[in-house]
Every structure is written in structure tokens, then in C-alpha cells.
Amino acid sequence: MNAWTHSKGVRALALLSCLGISASANARDGDGSQAPTALIKAATAYVETALRVPPGAHRTVAFVPPRSTLGLTACEVPLEASAPFLPETGGPLSVRIACPSPGWSIYLPGELHITAEVWVAARDLPRDTELRASDLTLQRLPLHRQAGGFALRTESLEGRRLRYPLARGAVVPPRATASPLWVRTGEPIMLAAGKGPLAVRMGGVALSNGAENDTVRVRNHGSRQVLQGRVVGPGEVKIGF
Fold it and tell me: Is the pTM of this model over 0.90?
């Protein structure tokens, strides 16, 4: 969905030494095994670096500490972290932490929580409402729970038309909106035909609703002929395309 996330399906690899995170810090437990705190710190730093979030969004990530790190010799070189996929709106995730030498790896499961301000209906909105600022309000919500989609604060929905009704407080997903109607059934329109010196304009009436580039039926006032045309502007239909 979005330019603010990492690329899907691309395996990312972070050398955590670039972030100033060394495996040697708190890496060794009393028995010589790898300290769990260093694993969690490495996984957290990786997610925070690899996954961008929308402006103004809040992000938290928590990992489940491994039950045991026995058998994982304390790593004396920078840990490497990678993940085949990071959920762009939050949810469960898994990060692989590896030690190049002596050569081991472990997967840490976790949960990513991202909240951001999204547009919701400020009142009950019927179908075909052309959205205005007064119809919308912002609410901070967890993004991974918005299965139907959402529009962020940075996106404009004003002027869009609702495809179906929405109750007050409902999230307004982009797929619930369509381009505004430029011609409406029964309303007067201007018909345009031809090009250059042969261009003519005449009055007519719309026989169907239409948004930008829609094909609509129209009636020519003069000839009373019913034609088809393409909506090219508010109240304007081009025929003979």
C-alpha cells in the first residue's frame, strides 16, 4: 500500500554494527551462552531501521524472549538480522538473528503495533455523499485491525463520492469512495463535438449519472436525439469520440 514501508518480498539484511550495536555488549551469560537481551535488542533495532511508518504514526515492537539460549555460543562479532517479510501495518512477525562465527541462527517471534490517525465518518453518511471536511474526522487506530483499508491523515478524501453508506465512526477506506459525479440524470449539460474550426457546442440533458471519463447517455435539446458521450468536465460531455 505504501511508499512508507520496506519493499515486500525483498529479504533485508542489517549488520547491526552499523547501528552501533555490538554482540559483545551483554552477549554472554554466566554459562558462556548468548544473552537473550542482546538478541532482542538486535531484532528490535532491525525492525525500527528496516520498516518505515507514516508521518505521525506510533510504532512499538515486542519480541518473545527465547526459552533458552543454551547451545548458542556467545557471539563475539556483530549480530546479523533479517526477515523475509515485515507486516507493513503491524501484526505478528519473525526476525532471524544470526552469528556468522561460530555460526548459528535463531528466529525471534514478536508483535508489531502501529497506530496512526485515519479518516472516519463524523456522522452517518448515506450512499453518494460527496465528502466534505465536515463529514470527516481523524481517529488514531491500530492499522493492522483495519482489514477493509483506511485513508491516512496525509490523504485527501474531500470531493470523493461514497459508494455505500457509512455509520458514524466508521473508517472510510479509499475503496468505499469514487470520483465525484460531473453529470447527473435530468440535469442540463453542454455537448461538445468535433475539433478545431469544426467544433460545435450545444445544449442537452443527461440521461444517466457519470464521473470523469464515464460513458453516459444524453439527449440533444435541438434534435431530441439520444446519444452516448464521454464525460470530460463538470456538466460537459463530448460526443463523437
Answer: no
